[in-house]
Structures are given as C-alpha cells and as structure tokens.
Amino acid sequence: MLDIYNFNPGPAILPKEILLEIKKNFLNWNDSKSSIVEISHRSSKFIKFTLKAEKDLRNILNIPENYRILFCHGGARGQFSAIPLNLTKKFIQPNYINSGYWSLCAFQEAKKYCNPNLINVRRLTKDNQVYIKSVQHWKVSSKNTYVHYCPNETIEGIEIFEEPVLNNKIIVGDFSSTILSRKINIKKYGIIYACAQKNIGPAGITLVIIREDLLQFSNHQSPSILDYNLLAQSNSMLNTPSVFSWYVAGLVFRWIKNLGGLDFIEKSNTKKAQILYKYLNSTNFYKNYISPVNQSRMNVTFHLQKKELTNLFVNIAEKHGLYGLKGHSLVGGIRASIYNAMPIKGIKRLIDFMKYFEKKFG
Ligand SMILES: *Cc1c(COP(=O)(O)O)cnc(C)c1O
C-alpha cells in the first residue's frame, strides 16, 4: 500500500506512533477501565497526567518558573479577544505588527476592545519577494503598550526568526504554527499563545504561556472563560477542558522530549525545509515568493508558473499519496505544511512528485 503524507496546514499531521498508542489505549486509558473521552478531568489519574505534561513542556521549551502555563478554550481566535481583554486595563494602546493574514485578524479583533496601532512591516525586494523589516525598524508607539506579532504567517509561509526586543515592551506572540518547531527564549515574551492543531495535537485546547505578573491586569468584565487570572487560579479547569486534546498534547510533549527536545526537532525541521527550498530554487517551473530570511520552515508556499495547472497538481498529488497541498484561497498556489511530525521521507516523496509533474507537464 502507498504511504500517505498529510501536508494539511491544520488540523495537521501527528506522529504515527502517537496515533497508534491512542488507538491501543483508547478503551482502557491508563488502567482506568474507561476511555479517555469518558474520564473525569478531575480524576486523580488525569490530574497526574496533566502535571507530567506540564513538566515535559516546561522542560522542552525551557519555561522559567515565573511563567504560568494555561490550557484554554476557543483556539487562537479566542486569544485574539483574550489578549486585549486581559491587558488593556494597563496597556491602553497596543501595537499590532502586520506581517500577513493572521496578524491582521488579531488586530481586527482587538479593535473591538481598544484602539490599537497597526504597523505594517511587510516589504518587497526588487525581485518581488516578500520580506519582513527587522525588529529594530518596527516603529511602535511608546506609551502604555504591548506589541502583538505573529512569528509564522501560516497562510503566506512567512516566518520571523528574529526575536523581538523592543525597549522592555511586553511582547505577545501568536505562535500557533511555529511553537515547538524551534527553540525560543521565553523570557523575551510577556505572553505566547498557540492553538493546538499544528504542532501540539488535535484542535480543542489552546496553549497560553504568560508571565505571572501580567495576570493581575485582567479585566473582570470579560467573560470568565477568557480571564487569565481565573484560569490560572483554577489550573485551567474553570470548566470542563477538552480532556482528549490535552491528553494527546501530553503525548506529543513526551514524544519531543524523548527525541532529544527542541535541539533535535529544530535541526530536523531546518534540514527538511532546506531540502525543499533548495529544490524550489533549482527550477523555474515552481516559484516561491518569500525572501530567504523569512521563508517559513513550517509552511512552504509556491506557485506553478503555469497557474492553470495548479488544480491538476493537487489532484494528481493525492493519487500519489500526497494530501493537503492546496494553497489557501487568499494566496492560491500550493502550500506544503511540514510540521514536526512530517518525516524527511515525506519531503523526498513530494520533491520526486514535483519532478515527475514538471517532466510531464512542463
Ligand atoms: C491556525 C492559526 C490560527 C487560527 O487558529 P484557530 O484555533 O482556528 O482559531 C491563528 N493564528 C495562526 C498563526 C494560525 O496558524
């Protein structure tokens, strides 16, 4: 049987061994005699599991003790509201960095609650490649502000590797599609958040890593379920969490730790992306429009020079076991999402297919 590779942007590929483990233990989770989707979130076995999951996550991301880890509801979009609701009591006029689709969405949601400042940092090179201005040129307003940005624009395939340092300003990052793909220095951020369905697990929980002193600014008029302070006090169990997603996330954290942590993961991701971009550079049949400094390691986007062949490419790719390659409708073209769980074999299979397709239709 043909191996299937899932290049979907999210929900995305999960490690095969984890899926098999879930299947094996599904009906009798952790010797509880009940399935993981029936067990109480307040049972001692599950609480124990969440503590271990948190410990593993702290270990792999090197999260300092003065940061709290919350597992929230509502996906990354829920956080687009939660961030201003929890911070604008103190930081009245936030700055929103615009690097693409998701960062702009976060800005638009924030406008419901405050008067944010939008800063466009996207530019074009002479060869029509998109790049992001370096952080020192981000013109943020200076008073009472936090700075929100998105280090990986999932739709366009634009990644910002430079870690923002802006005069002690509180940095808030939407890490949905790059979390756990490389090392980051948590201390540089006030809040990091990420939905689960890219590198963490199934949709249903949302990770928030928040510096403890920021908890005090939450706005008590906001919905309780978005109130970081209440979520922290209840250990993310203010109401019923998605037990299943939390469980799979815990398995993913353990998987990363056992592989050798983010050192290993980052090396492997760098190699995977390099192989694919190098191939893209070697042909005129396909073209990527992102400047090399900002080429995403997680979402590799490209267009066929003969645009009319795009759908055919996607359809035939599926017949070759390569799924989820259609680009987002806003940008068109092809997008290969190559998250942590995508093996290098998947990249090689994709390149072999691209060569075959070019030969046949080029
Ligand atoms: C996927 C994604 C989102 C949206 O996540 P939801 O959980 O569907 O709300 C937001 N931001 C980024 C960067 C994403 O990749």
TrEMBL record:
The reaction(s) this protein catalyses: O-phospho-L-serine + 2-oxoglutarate = 3-phosphooxypyruvate + L-glutamate; 4-(phosphooxy)-L-threonine + 2-oxoglutarate = (R)-3-hydroxy-2-oxo-4-phosphooxybutanoate + L-glutamate
GO MF entries: O-phospho-L-serine:2-oxoglutarate aminotransferase activity; pyridoxal phosphate binding
InterPro entries: Aminotrans_V_dom (IPR000192), Aminotrans_V_PyrdxlP_BS (IPR020578), Pser_aminoTfrase (IPR022278), PyrdxlP-dep_Trfase (IPR015424), PyrdxlP-dep_Trfase_major (IPR015421), PyrdxlP-dep_Trfase_small (IPR015422)
Cofactor note: Binds 1 pyridoxal phosphate per subunit.
PANTHER family, per database record: PHOSPHOSERINE AMINOTRANSFERASE
Function: Catalyzes the reversible conversion of 3-phosphohydroxypyruvate to phosphoserine and of 3-hydroxy-2-oxo-4-phosphonooxybutanoate to phosphohydroxythreonine.
Protein's recorded name: Phosphoserine aminotransferase
Organism: Buchnera aphidicola (Cinara laricifoliae)
